[in-house]
Amino acid sequence: MNCQLCQKEMDAYRGGTLPEGIRIQVEAHLESCDACAQMNQLIFLSDKVMDEEKNLQSNPFLVTRIMAGIEDLAPGYESYHPVSVFQKVLKSAIVAVSLAAAIFIGVVAGNLYKPATPVNKIPVEMVYLNDAALESVDLLTN
Ligand SMILES: [Zn+2]
């Protein structure tokens, strides 16, 4: 028997459902092959752990104790975040005042800015330009 065949039959071997001839071959291989013997031992241990987990009983008082602990914490939790009416009013007042200050500062800064050359004056040459001669309307009609 080779390792592949032995590992294929291992589940049935541990379950005790193998026919007598194959069971003897698997046992002989497990005695001669360290790798398969270790794998068999590992699967045996993992099966044991899973069986132990299935038999674990949950503590019926655990949920009750946790919920009681949460309820004990709840009043203390409230005191960590006291939100009074005064604080709410103060917060919105601070937001409004800072918004107004930002707008005021923006307007003042915009009025303080003076360009180096006056932009409102039209250069003298522009007065003599004939717009109609620059762009003919006839081009657009065709
Ligand atoms: Zn083997």
What characteristic shape results from the CA principal axes?
elongated
Number of helices: 9
Q: Which residues sit in consecutive blocks of at least 5 with pLDDT less than 50?
A: none
Into which percent range does the helicity of residues fall? over 70%
Reported for the largest beta sheet, the result is:
none
- Percentage beta strand: under 5%
Radius of gyration in whole Å, from Cα?
Answer: 45 Å
SSE string = HHHHHHHHH
Describe this structure in words.
75% of the residues lie in helices and 0% in strands. With 142 residues, the protein is mainly α. The chain has a domain at 3-55. It starts with a helix and ends with a helix. The relative contact order is 0.04. The mean pLDDT is 84. Zinc ion binds next to helix 1 and helix 4.
